[in-house]
Amino acid sequence: MKNLDVRILMRPHIRRMVPYSTARDEYKGTQGIFLDANENPFGSPMAKDLHRYPDPSHKALKAVLADRLELPADMLFCGSGSDEVIDVLMKVFCTPGHSGVVILPPTYGMYEVLAEIYELNVIKVPLDNEFQPDVPGIIRQGTGARMLFLCSPNNPTGNLMDQQRVLEILQHFEGVVVMDEAYMDFAESTSWAQEVLHHPNLIVLKTLSKLWGLAALRVGIAIAHPEVIRAMNKVKLPYNLSTPVMEMAVKALKNHDYPLKIKESVRVNRQLLTSELIQLRMVKHIYPSDANFILVRFENAERVYRLLRDRHIIVRNRSNETNCENCLRITIGTAEEIRQLIQALKEIDTTTDP
Ligand SMILES: *Cc1c(COP(=O)(O)O)cnc(C)c1O
Predict the structure, then answer these.
(1) Which of 62, 67, 161, 285 has the highest local Cβ count within 10 Å?
(2) pTM more than 0.90
(3) pLDDT over 90 at 330, yes or no
(4) What CA–CA distance (Å, rounded) separates 330 from 349?
(5) Which residues line ligand 1 (CB under 6 A)?
(6) Confidence of residue 354 (pLDDT cuts 50, 70, 90)
(7) Minimal CA–CA distance to 101: which of 40, 175, 28, 168?
């Protein structure tokens, strides 16, 4: 999509909408007597500053993220998890009951859930035998669709999307291409984030929920053309991230060794889990993974899932997903968790109960 003004993909009324502005957006200082927002001036029973509304523009958090991602802050959006970011994107680009959205199953379930909430036309173009995008199928069936969701490494399959195919999609798909990189931090591959500078219809999603170990905070990030960010800011609720969440995220992101350490631990434990699993009779296939989970095909996934659960070990049954018959998705745990999982699986492997 060369030289296309990404604004023409937005819903016209959102494009024209004047953003909601708080009195604090209009006053640029940080010191003053704040009598504009009906806050409690005496303070809270809890930590300092909790009686004030949070910064709706997420300035401090975006500054740290911009530094880490080596991108300007006006190309960043922060939401309460990637799930909110996807919701905001649909509100910007998709007309309820009308627009088409392309998804490539098997993939992350939230794309379809949110599309259904907005009664969008969900166009499914399954990944091929190697779990790679079917580019001709996408071009054929996706004509006229507003958005397309790519996930690399893909959940639940764990593999990276082929770079050449992603480029072909970026060149030929005439809507917004969302590249969900929730697991890219675990992979030996480069992020698509810098490509947003060359493709105004590309939007890259990141999250602090996985590698950064901050799933409870709910921080998701979109990297997009500044015009897209402007529209997203109009659509989001003003105070979508709380002050303690933003402060903790800023503190965490200053830690440079932590993500490297976790990436290495996950790599080692993924190798450990794989080498144990291949020794089990009931394991039929282990899909190669660049993420912090692996997809495993069993002889009878339903039975394994049930017997693991009886032993208080919870994995994700993906058997009903497209081309995932008899597959369980297993998160890479600690060495001790893997030891207990393998012990349970060995018991299940050698018993014949139903
Ligand atoms: C876990 C996950 C996310 C993260 O969602 P948050 O709302 O940020 O926790 C996003 N995309 C995919 C594909 C995921 O698996």
Answers:
(1) 62
(2) yes
(3) yes
(4) 17
(5) 81-83, 108, 151, 155, 180, 182, 207, 209-210, 215, 220
(6) low
(7) 175
